[in-house]
Amino acid sequence: MDELNVKAGQLLTFGCNDQVYGFDITSVTDIIEIPEITMLPMVADYIPGIMNLRGKVVPVMDFAGRMGFEKPEYDSHSCIVVVDCEGSLLGVRVPKVIDAEEYEAENISDSPVENSCIIGYIELHGRRVTVIDCIRLSEKNR
Asked: Which residues are paired to 123 by β-bridges?
């Protein structure tokens, strides 16, 4: 985990496919309602397009699609979590944000899969949270 610079802090947790996931909150820049998304030709199925965020063009990724899940029904609880991936913004469409929750790095169990966007797993409030590395999540987009 040292190579990923995971520290104690807070996770922004969100639900998808009956599971809980989290981004380190230091990578999250915005949580917004799903805006108008402009479709792009010839991109991966999990990239619905781009959005305008305060005058910046930001690509939007569907988290469920990127993870290989069926596309969920999006509703009024759905949103875009904007993450900073080494200076590049990425909008990640998620079915629902849950909360910002504190964690300790030593409580994260490493992912058994190398080179995955999953850093590891942690138990928070009686449920398992899958911790996501937003940089690795975005790698197929670059």
From this structure: 128
Task: Give the span between the Cα atoms of 101 and 24, in whole angstroms.
Answer: 10
Contact 64, 33 (CB under 8 A): no
**What's the rounded Cα separation, in Å, for the pair 92 and 94?**
6
pTM of the model: 0.88
CB 74 within 8 A of CB 93: yes
In the structure encoding, which two tokens stand for residue 106, read together? 């030593």
- Structural domains of the chain, ranges and CATH numbers in brackets: 2-141 (2.40.50.180)
Which residues are registered as beta bridge partners of 31? 81
pLDDT single digits (tens) 47-84: 999 999 999 999 999 999 999 999 898 999 999 999 99
Contact 37, 51 (CB under 8 A): yes
